[in-house]
Amino acid sequence: MKIRQAKAADAKEIAAITNAIIRETLVTFTTDERSVDSIARDIEARGPAYLVAEQDDQILGFATYGPFRSGPGYAQCRELTIQLATDAREQGTGRVLMRALEAAARAEGTHALVAGISSANPGAVSFHAAVGFVEVGRMPEVGFKWGKRLDLVLMQKILAADGLVAPDSPDLGR
């Protein structure tokens, strides 16, 4: 398996992965499928922040990040998405993609990564915990799909100790 920066030509395979997840699962709250063109534009816009796992010229999954919220105060925080083809799950692909995504984020100066996970996807909560994310919040019933109200689980990973102290930190008085 090889991890590399995504290319616009990968958009069709990425669309197949993500649109199957949209159509068939509660992993995402959206019901709007993604077009190949919109994915290709995202790949071009995000550059090194959009990665794919590839084996035998087949895309096994992708990982990307983008802004968490707008405004300069959030500039060092990114929200990630990681999705795998059904047959690539539980093979270590997600862990390898996540390590590469974290390295790309660190190189770009990202301090924290955030994952918003559907409560209907406990496997993703377990996966993120296994790679060092911690649950920092749960927003009850903010998602709605297929007649079900779903919680959003927020998980976070601090990527680098930069010596700065958070305002609510007990170390503030140092």
From TrEMBL:
The gene is yncA. It comes from the Bacteria. SUPFAM superfamilies: Acyl-CoA N-acyltransferases (Nat). Signal peptide: none annotated. One of its GO terms (molecular function) is acyltransferase activity, transferring groups other than amino-acyl groups. This is N-acyltransferase YncA. Gene3D superfamilies: 3.40.630.30. It comes from Ruegeria atlantica. Residues 1-151 form the N-acetyltransferase domain. Its EC number is 2.3.1.-. Keywords: Acyltransferase, Transferase. Pfam families: Acetyltransf_4.
